[in-house]
Predict the structure.
Amino acid sequence: MLKQNVEETVAYIRSRTDIKPEIAIVLGSGLGAFGDKIEAPCIIPYGDIPHFAVSTAPGHHGRLIIGKLNGKAILCMQGRFHYYEGYAMGQVTYPVRMMKALGIETLILTNASGGLNPSFSAGDLMLITDHINHMGVNPLIGPNEDSFGPRFPDMTMAYSRELKQAARDAAKRLAIDLREGVYVAFTGPSYETPAEIRMFQQLGADAVGMSTVPEAIVASHSGMRLLAISCVTNLAAGILDVPLSGEEVVEAANQAGAKFTALLAEIIGSI
């Protein structure tokens, strides 16, 4: 059934545009402005796409944009689906299956995150070098579709060395201080407690959020090249003696938008 659904989704998208995207990008909370940079865009609301979910989280526009940027054909998700919205993991990661079936081999994931590393500041961009899955669930649980990937995929090289270096080089050309670190995902939607933050720090995490890891696992399962970048929108609970809010996250991401957009465009032009 999953394979058939993916085929129907791909057929619909191909009926809407002749562009054959080679790179896919998922934009996180408050980072949707990047999608407005895409040239000659074909814009498709998620609600029009067969078997797609609909974004309900703040700061997620909920539309697919296919077009060109820096000479590359790209597919951009202006907003993602989250486990905390009540979607099953198969729905959360369904777009990655669709991307692979479209022939896309390179995926760039982005998110807004809370900083755990005390040297980080709001507005920093962090290259994700590895992740910790603290969501208590894995999107590959259940029957394995061998045509999608192996039963037990290796996650050692989930984040492409080549793409990480391309991101470092792009940041250097733009004089952007690109941080690096480990991202830990938990389900949300409540923010983490100070005790949980201390635990995550002890585990070696540098940033925390409610997304990205399920998509990264499915991308790895599918054999895609993967790059992931976090926008640190706030310091996590207990690090500063202030309450956290979703509005703060979106606003901070919006403020970092120009730097973030410039970096993504530079990376895309170089890969």
Remarks:
- The mean pLDDT is 91.
- Residues 70 and 268 are 7 Å apart (CA to CA).
